[in-house]
Every structure is written in structure tokens, then in C-alpha cells.
Specification:
With about 120 residues, the chain is mostly helical. The protein has one domain (about 1-115). It has helices spanning about 1-20, 30-40, 45-60, 65-80, 85-105. It is globular and about 45 Å long. The termini are far apart.
Amino acid sequence: MKKILFAIILIALGILFRTRWHLYPNVEFVTAATLLASVYLGRKWGILVPIVIMAISDSIIGNTNIFIFTWSAYILMGIFTKGKPWMKAITASLFFFVWTNFEWTIKGLLYGTSFFKV
């Protein structure tokens, strides 16, 4: 019961931070909720919590064509982050940055299509 309550609190905060209380660009509560859920609730919740947050908040604020990479980044963070909590935070944040920038690179939207422009 405590796990479910904690998951509901993380989901509610995640939705609120994505829709109403957005702090600054590139400050994502979903990443924190994913890490907290995977560390304290287990792998299943580490996958479920960010997916529910993203599904509900994206239905409110809309979505873009990069959702596959952002959603998959949160799922993979929930599955594969191992080790101490501080190490999970560092590796998950770096993975999210690299993975989502890789998506922009292959689409040629942010960076040029040449190897030397990357």
C-alpha cells in the first residue's frame, strides 16, 4: 500500500510539474520521479511511473514527433539504472541527454547532417 501511495504521489507531482509548475527549460521532474521510483519502489514502478506521467501530461499539453525517444529514454532509465542512487542519477541524466540528442542528430533537426557539424 505504501508503494502504491508513493507512486501516486510521484505521478501527481510529475503531471503537475509538466503541466503547471514547469520550472526552467531542461529541468524535468519526470527524470527525478523515474529515479525515485526505480530506487525505492523497484524496476516495475520505475517503468510504470514515467509512462503514466508522460501519457497523462502529453494528453494535456500535447506532444511532438520526438516522443518516441523521450518516452523510451524514461523506460530505459527505469530498467537499466543500477548501482548507488547518486550513480543512477548521473548515468540516467547523461543517458537521457545523449539519447534525446541522438534523435535530433539523426533527424538533422538540431545539428547538421554532416559528421563534422556534430
